[in-house]
Amino acid sequence: MKVLLLLPLFMCLTCRVWGRHFERCELAQVLHNAGLEGYRGYTLGDWLCLAFSESKFNTALVNHEADGSTNNGIFQINSRIWCEDYKRLKPNLCQMHCSDLLTSNINDDLVCAMRIAQGSRGLASWKGWRENCEGIDLSIWLKGCVL
User: Fold this and answer.
1) Which partner from 49, 85, 108, 109 sits 20 to 30 angstroms from 93, CA to CA?
2) Would 11 be classed as within a structural domain?
């Protein structure tokens, strides 16, 4: 009986270990090391603002849309086009399972986000970036960070 009571707690702790919340400067360093400064004309500030606007730097975040799709990970990448959730046949343009976007390792998130940014809309593909980041001075996102 005690085992059954502890199982939900164990599962919850396992989920928390799987994903993570980045600190702003820590994520800036990861993005810098990945070569995102200047990628497609966007600054590190653009990428940080995007990640904060979409997930508050939370790699394990999943949001459910009315159409049954999900937005996944630190960049909230949608399952309708970009990743596989096994619910129905979809394009899966990033060639990955959506759960791969929920781990503490964001390398695959970065590759997929860069692929999305290559499209004609760039970072404007994300509503969070359009509403919170586009056209404003984003240098504040790097204030105090050593890169």
Assistant:
1) 49
2) no
* pLDDT tens, position by position, 51-78: 999 999 999 999 999 999 999 999 999 9
For the domain that residue 101 is a member of, what is the CATH number?
1.10.530.10
Specify the higher pLDDT residue, 44 or 16. 44
Question: Do the beta carbons of residue 95 and residue 77 sit within 8 Å?
Answer: no
Distances (CA, A) of 46 to 50, 64, 124, 133: 6, 25, 11, 7
Distance CA 99, CA 97 (A): 5
Structural domain count, the chain: 1
Burial group, residue 61, by CB count within 10 angstroms (0-12, 13-18, 19+): buried
Q: Give this prediction's pTM.
A: 0.86
Which residues are known to be catalytic? 54
**Residue with tokens 């993570």, as numbered in its chain:** 20
How far is Cα 88 from Cα 105, in angstroms, rounded to an integer?
26
Mean pLDDT within 30-47:
98
